[in-house]
Write a structure and sequence with these properties.
Layout (H helix, E strand, L loop, with lengths): L4 E8 H4 L11 E7 L2 E2 L2 E2 L1 H16 L2 H6 L4 H10 L16 H14 L4 E4 L1 H6 L10 E6 L5 E11 L4 H14 L2 H14 L9 H11 L5 H4 L3 E10 L1 H5 L5 H25 L10 E9 L2 H15 L3
Parallel strand pairs: 2-9, 7-8, 8-9
Antiparallel strand pairs: 1-2, 3-4, 5-6, 6-7
Helix pairs in contact: 2-4, 2-5, 2-13, 7-12
Amino acid sequence: MIPFEIIIDDTLLGDLIPTTSLEPISNKSVLSIANDYEDKNWRYKKFNNFIWNNISEDALTKEERDSLIECPDSVLDKAASRLRIIQNKKGDDEKTGGEIAEILLYGIMHHYYNALSVVPKIFYKQNKNDYAKGADSVHIIVEDGDNISLWLGEAKFYNSIADGRLDVVINSVYETISTEKIKKENAIITGLSEFDKYDISETAKRKIQELLNEDTSIDKIKPILHIPIVLLYECKITAKSTELSEDYKKMIIAMQKERALSYFAKQIDKCTDIAKYSEIKFHLILFPVPDKEIVVDKFIKRAKEYRDE
């Protein structure tokens, strides 16, 4: 269970904004998550704890997580050793804090969607492996009846989610859903066989192998393909607020609905040449923070403590 407030519960865009004329719209949804306040202050420690409680999903393999299950301090030490730790530089909005957004995505996938992490991206980035390129997260969900879905995620941490920033995200998503990139991610998943270490049925494992086989047409993958897009962003509404009130929620919802509409309109325009685009499911996940620099500084401080720097 995710320890934050769900403001918009992975709602279809058409239900959230009934008057929109965007098409296709049935494959798009919005999930809004918010942290709360204590003594009129946004709870930075709670947010930071969530990131560190979920870093192993992104930085360690399943085998490593299992071997260290009785040693939580060792888990964090090893995970921290694999961080790149890009210092907080004003104006460097592309890279600074990117790993925080990525870990947040892994945490949301684990606690909200009950997904299996099959490619820990930070692990492969630290090992300078080609596996690090491509999507920011790779997950598989096994549902009742051994039905499976493939999730290739995108994660960004921005000073704002103005249109200029949305363009960067859309370009990344466009690349992620290209046939070449999907085939590459599929090859990585089957090559690593990380899902073999999970307690899932043999039927589900066979389905995964068959669907992700290099000889399988990507046309068969797209109906089970989901793209979660986490936008962790600095928000003036959140900075000015002192409690998670109904008024705060209303303001956040109004702003995020407008941003979601702008984002998906731009994405539709960009993806006109993507075959079976309407069959891919997109989940825009929005998480506001009051001050990006403080979030990054607190994360780096704890990372250096675990790394004994």
